[in-house]
Structure formats: structure tokens, C-alpha cells
Design a protein that fits this description.
Pathway: Amino-acid biosynthesis; L-arginine biosynthesis; N(2)-acetyl-L-ornithine from L-glutamate: step 3/4. About 30% of the residues lie in helices and about 20% in strands. It is α/β, with parallel strands linked by helices and about 350 residues long. The chain folds into two domains: about 120 residues, Rossmann fold, CATH 3.40.50; about 170 residues, Dihydrodipicolinate Reductase, domain 2. The chain binds NADPH dihydro-nicotinamide-adenine-dinucleotide phosphate (NDP) and N-acetyl-L-glutamyl 5-phosphate.
Length: about 350
């Protein structure tokens, strides 16, 4: 058994980590921090954990956390910048669910996150924790930047086409929908029931902070520049990301049949436990992944025209955050990659 800690246990990704880790055969959660709830039993705040976890929130303390084999950060941006270095120095591996180490250029990070980067010296060793792309680097990493929710759904959808050189790289449009839990647990007017239910709207139309993260990943895969239009929407559901991903097929790819495009996706993800390429003609639903670490994908070519449309769904709190974080932990410590992640999605 390894000992793990969680910094920021009261948010949705923190409690989702606990839901998964209490079922993990190789992990003992020994510390969970909250400054505002220190001393309160975790199961008093989250009754779904009653009978599964006998632990109270505590103040973040670097020495206590440093006794863990790994520490997850489920905190707002900027917190891991300050605490990662002292933990790494004590030999503790760090898995950060925030965006602190996702973007390789600290100036680009500062532009999109409106603050100076607090630990640029750690960026060279931080590994972007998308296992379907970086599994080998994750094995040896000390510091993982867990991808954001939209970036996970969008990259997994586009990667097979980009790797195979099948789409024009200046033609990408990602039309994405998120459930409200993506905005976190903090009180915000836009997350109120009367504001978010029975309605849907676009936001960050002129640029969302996930744009540079997605572009960085797609450009790495393409080894060339990529032009992406990314439009996020808030939808009246609690969990889920639905990404409709469009692109123009290259002239050569337009000579391929849909079945051949489907085969590209099936081959790319044949060995991946957590990516399900659905049969031709499928429309993946967010509820088919709710509570599970799966990404379900379907590829379409409407009217057999010049455009491809990939549909990609994940649960923002699982494959989009805490489940992917546990998948990284499993790879780092040599556990079965699906340890603690065998949940079947909750449907209906
Ligand atoms: N919600 C989602 O779908 C996704 C979220 N993420 C990212 O995961 C991270 C966590 O998000 P979410 O779960 O929504 O959490 P919240 O932002 O709602 O909660 C943050 C947690 O961090 C703690 N915290 C805040 N400030 C500090 C600090 N300075 N030092 C130590 N602890 C602190 C809080 O507890 P306290 O203040 O009591 O200490 C709280 O437990 C964010 O970076 C978010 O962007 C990533 C992917 C998806
Ligand atoms: C619905 C909603 O508000 N979603 C969040 C994204 C989810 C998230 O928290 O992503 P990070 O991990 O990059 O912070 C947003 O658009 O800001």
C-alpha cells in the first residue's frame, strides 16, 4: 500500500478523488486538507463517504504531506506552484489537477491565467498527464500536470486524425458543452439552479484558457502549427463534457471511406482501456460515461462530404480530472492502470 495525500479536499475534484481512492486496492489516503474545514470529519461533509473513510480535514502542512508517497493537488491555480517544490524535495511525487504545470511556456500561462507563473523552474520536468499520449514519460515522472476536462475530450477526439495526417490543420472547430460541476463547488451566480437549469449558453466566446492547452497538445502531435476555434457552452447537467469536433479532410483523406476512417480510430485506441471507439453511426451520450473514467468516441462524415465530425464524451470529474489523476498514479507506481477505476457508468 502507498500513502497518499490530497490538498484541497472540499472541492468537487477532491471529493471525487476520495470516491475513487477509497475503492483503490493499493492506496491508503492518509491526509486530506482544507483550511476552512480543518478538524471536521470528511464524511460529515460528504455523506456518500460514510463507512468508507475515517479521516478529518487538516490544515495543509508540508511536513505531514511530505510523509506521503504521492500528493494530489485539487486546488485553484497557483497553489501547487508554491507547494510542489518542497514536496518533491522530500521525495513525494506530485499529481496536480490544476493548470499550474500544463502549459510549457510560463509567459503564455501568465497571459491566460492573469498572474505570474510561480514555479517556472519546475516546468521542464512536469509531464502532461494524458496517458494515451505520454504513458512512458508518466512512468518516471515526479510531477504530473493532469489535463483539463475540455482538453482531454478534444485531444482524444482529434489525435487519431492528426497523427495520421488526415485533416487540414487550419480547419479545426471544437464545439464543446460542459456540465455545471466543471465550474467547481464555490458559490457563483452562474451555477445557481435558476440560472443554469433549463437553459444553455456559450461562454468565453473570445478565448478560453483551455485554448492554449489544447493547441499545445495538438501541435505536439502534428509537429506543426494548428489553428483551432474552441467554443465552450454551459449545459444543464451536473457532470459531463460533450465535444463535437469538426475539420476538413485533406484531399487524400476525402478519398477514404468512412469505414477506413473508423479503422484509424480503432487502431489508434485498440490497446487503450479508457477510450471506447463506438460502432459506426453512434452518438455517444454523456450519461454513458457518468461516474466512469471512459472517453467514448464516434467518427462521422456527414453527407460523405469534405468534413469529418468526431463526437467525444467524458465525465469532467473523472476522465476530465480525478479519474485521470488516479490513472496517472497507477502508471507512476506500476499498479494495474485500471486499479480503482473499474466503475461502470451510472445509467440512466
Ligand atoms: N471541476 C472540474 O470539472 C475540474 C476542475 N479542475 C481543476 O481542479 C482544481 C480543483 O477544482 P474543484 O474541485 O472544482 O475545487 P474548488 O476550486 O471548488 O476547491 C478548491 C479546494 O482547494 C482548497 N484551497 C483553496 N485555496 C487553497 C490554498 N491557497 N491552499 C491550500 N488549499 C486551498 C479549498 O479548501 P480550503 O480553502 O478550505 O483550504 C478547496 O478544498 C481546480 O484547479 C480546477 O480548475 C480540473 C478539471 C476539471
Ligand atoms: C463549466 C465550467 O465553468 N468549466 C470550467 C472548466 C473546467 C475546469 O475546471 O478546468 P481546469 O482544470 O482547467 O480549471 C471553465 O470553463 O472554466
Amino acid at each position: 500500500m502507498i500513502k497518499v495525500g490530497i490538498v484541497g479536499g472540499t472541492g468537487y475534484t477532491g471529493v471525487e478523488l476520495l470516491r475513487l481512492l477509497t475503492q483503490h486496492p493499493e492506496v491508503d489516503v492518509s491526509v486530506i486538507t482544507s483550511r476552512s474545514e480543518a478538524g471536521i470529519p470528511v464524511a460529515d461533509m460528504y455523506p456518500n463517504l460514510r463507512g468508507h473513510l475515517d479521516l478529518a480535514f487538516s490544515e495543509p502542512d508540508v511536513d505531514v504531506l511530505g510523509a506521503c508517497d504521492a500528493v494530489f493537488f485539487a486546488t485553484p491555480h497557483g497553489v501547487a506552484h508554491a507547494l510542489a517544490a518542497p514536496l518533491l524535495a522530500q521525495g513525494t511525487r506530485v499529481i496536480d489537477l490544476s493548470a499550474d504545470f500544463r502549459i510549457k511556456d510560463p509567459q503564455i500561462w501568465a497571459h491566460w491565467y492573469n498572474q505570474a507563473h510561480g514555479a517556472p523552474e519546475l516546468l521542464p520536468e512536469a509531464v502532461y498527464g494524458l496517458p494515451e499520449v505520454n504513458r512512458n514519460a508518466i512512468k518516471d515522472a515526479r510531477l504530473i500536470a493532469v489535463p483539463g476536462c475540455y482538453p482531454t475530450a478534444v485531444q482524444l477526439g482529434y489525435l487519431p486524425l492528426i497523427r495520421a495526417g488526415l485533416i487540414a490543420l487550419d480547419s479545426l472547430i471544437a464545439d464543446c458543452k460542459s456540465g455545471v460541476s466543471g465550474a467547481g463547488r464555490g458559490a457563483k451566480v452562474g451555477s445557481l439552479l435558476c440560472e443554469a437549469s433549463e437553459s444553455m449558453k456559450a461562454y468565453s466566446m473570445n478565448g478560453h484558457r483551455h485554448l492554449p492547452e489544447i493547441t499545445q497538445g495538438l501541435q505536439e502531435a502534428a509537429q506543426s502549427s494548428v489553428n483551432l476555434l474552441f467554443m465552450p457552452h454551459l449545459t444543464p447537467m451536473i457532470r459531463g463534457i460533450h465535444a463535437s469536433l469538426y475539420a476538413t479532410l485533406t484531399p487524400e483523406a476525402q478519398r477514404m471511406t468512412l469505414a477506413e476512417l473508423q479503422a484509424v480510430f480503432e487502431q489508434t485506441y485498440a490497446q487503450e482501456t479508457f477510450v471506447d471507439v463506438m460502432p459506426l453511426g453512434s452518438a455517444p451520450e454523456t450519461r454513458s460515461v457518468r461516474g466512469s473514467n471512459m472517453c467514448r468516441i464516434a467518427v462521422h462524415r456527414p453527407q460523405e462530404g469534405a468534413h469529418v465530425c468526431v463526437l467525444s464524451v467524458i465525465d469532467n470529474l473523472v476522465k476530465g480530472a480525478s479519474g485521470q489523476a488516479v490513472q496517472n498514479l497507477n502508471i507512476m507506481f506500476g499498479f494495474a492502470e485500471d486499479a480503482g477505476l473499474k466503475q461502470v457508468a451510472l445509467l440512466p
